[in-house]
Amino acid sequence: MLLSLWASRATATTEVRCRLETVSSIIEAYALPAIDLLKIDVEGSEEAVLQGIRDEHWPCIKQVVSECRTTPASRAGGHAWYTLDVFS
To answer: What are residue 35's DSSP bridge partners?
Structure first.
């Protein structure tokens, strides 16, 4: 019975509406002079987040940590984390 209950909850989905903002819009809204560490974990859309950062905002981002799917094995459920020194 417990396994059945877990299986029903593990496969259930719920649609949630939320407002999305780009990193650049947050930098501007809060007038951020610098971001020491930007951690990105958005379930497969990390590249879209990075592409949405405008060129003029990259100099204020010192490091980025992002989950990456780089191999067939990692796409099958594994993952890897990488730290990128943007401006050393």
So the answer is: 61
On whether residue 8 sits in a domain, the answer given is no
Number of domains in the chain: 1
Taking the C-alpha atoms of residue 24 and residue 6, their distance in angstroms, rounded to an integer, is: 39
Within the chain, strands assigned E span 38-40, 63-68, 80-85
- The residue behind tokens 């809060």 is 30
pLDDT digits (tens, 9 = 90+) for 45-72: 888 899 889 999 999 999 998 877 665 5
**Length of the chain in residues, anyone?**
88
Domain that holds residue 59: 22-85
- Tell me the torsion sign for CA atoms 87, 42, 80, 69: negative
Under 8 Å between Cβ of 85 and 63: yes
Q: Could you report the per-residue pLDDT of 22-43, keeping only the tens digit for each?
A: 999 999 999 999 999 999 988 7
